[in-house]
Amino acid sequence: MRDRFPLVLIGGLVLLGALGSALMQGAKRGAFADQLSTYRSERNGARALYLLLEQGGAGVGRTQQSFEAIEHGQNLFLLGTSFAESHEGLKSKTGFTTPKDGGSEDDEDEALSDEEKEDLKTRGLNAMRAPPISEDETEKLLEHIQDGATVVYLPRRATSNELLRATGVSLTTVEKELDLRTLVPAQPGPFTRGVERVEARVTSFLDLPERAFPLLVDERLDLVAAAVVPYGQGRLIVIGAPELAMNQALARADNAQLWRALVRQVNRTGIASFDEYHHGFSGERSMGAFAARYGLQYAVAQLLLGVILWAASLRRFGRPRAPKEELRIGATDALSATSRLYREGKHFAHAAQCIVKELAAELAPLVGASPRASPAELGAALELHGRKELSTALLSLASSAQAAQRDADVFEVASRAALVRSTLQHHRKKRIVR
Fold first, then answer.
1. What is d(CA 242, CA 153) in angstroms, rounded to the nearest whole number?
2. What stretches of 32-73 adopt beta strand conformation (E)?
3. Pairwise CA distance, residues 45 & 316, whole Å
């Protein structure tokens, strides 16, 4: 048992580490999802918002398919969803900064604040897994709004896209020191019923077309942070404070009440569905995607664990099991037939030399020799390495094997070879104990 204790200790430590990792991963439930996803339980997720509305009986759901085919009567919530392209620059105002004219959302890194860059870094692989809304999807989305649907859009950053341009809305990004703002309803209405003030970090203020009407304005700057924009028979609701939907901001002021009133009013014309397809979730996931849901490193670890378990399944521990009766009888018959062939052919010397050759192959690792070395070469090597007794026994057996003429001679060679093997095993056990 003492020789197995280090192996047992190492195995116990590995098992403890695996269980600890699984426990820590379970404590971070929902951290694998993208920011502003309703599956994410971290501070910058929107799981609390979804649970609040679901448990409150507001009638919300999730959609995990592209906008190529949108169900009739489905009102969509786009929380921090990005679009595939952005061409127009943004207007500038006193007290605000403007990104460079032209370029896509991904090309405007120089216009991002340090906090926004850090925000993109924390998304990790989610930024690659979450597909942006394509141009074809944008066209279908605009047609869906024109047919009478409502879309609530919270842009992650103040960048222009086809949805905003088609509805005539432009954004201005806010300086870092103006992030945390107090917003109040612009006028009494069903979208802000029961709301006195909300508090959140504003990423962009809105410039609206004439037909639009504001929902929330900054208490001090009197700039629009959220508005309803009619488009066709439907409407687009733009909120320039994506933090309003995050778990960390839901308990502030009347933030939760704002969402209750907003969803209640939106559901008058259909069913509210939070878009999760563009946060990296689809209705069907492959086994690889399912394994990598917590990160690529965990998928690799699961693969290695599977290989280890497969390799371990090929071996068994403990004493060897007795072979099945048919195998044992078959092996006995084969051995009996082989011995009869040797006996009838009078190959006594050859049989004895085969026994000596197998013994030499077992002694070869002691001196680092080849298993195919002759007994004479191996005897000399054993004597040089201080194993004279084994060298003498091997050479004596080789001489006796060449002179074997009958069954008794072969039996004697086999018995002496077995004695040498038992001596060798005894020395190995003494070395392991020491």
1. 9
2. 60-63
3. 48
- 203 phi/psi in degrees, rounded to 5: -95, -20
Residues 6+ apart with CB under 8 A from 423: 389, 390
As given in the structure block, the two tokens for residue 407 are 């069954």
**CA gap 234, 168 in Å, rounded:** 15
Helix (H, G, I), strand (E, B) or coil at 79: strand
Angle at which helix 348-367 crosses helix 325-344, to 10 degrees, equals 120
Selection from 263, 113, 257 nearest residue 193 by Cα:
257
For residues 90 and 159, the answer to whether their CB atoms sit within 8 Å is yes
Q: Quote the CA–CA distance of 371 and 369 in Å, as a whole number.
A: 6
170 neighbors 207 (Cβ within 8 angstroms): yes
Both structure tokens of 102: 């032209």
> Hey, is 171 helix, strand or coil?
strand
Q: What is the DSSP string of 125-160?
A: THHHHSPPBPHHHHHHHHHHHHTT-EEEEE-SSS--
Angle at 212 between CA 206 and CA 217, to 5 degrees: 45
Judge whether 117 and 176 are in contact, CB under 8 Å: no
Cβ atoms of residues 35 and 44 within 8 Å: yes
pLDDT in tens, 387-433: 888 888 888 888 888 888 888 888 888 888 888 888 777 666 655 54
pLDDT of residue 256: 92
Task: Give Cβ neighbours of residue 122 (< 8 Å, ≥ 6 apart).
Answer: 35, 44
Q: What's the sign of the alpha-carbon dihedral 210, 213, 218, 222?
A: positive
The angle at the Cα of 210, spanning 91 to 168, to the nearest 5 degrees, equals 50
* % of the chain at pLDDT higher than 90: 15
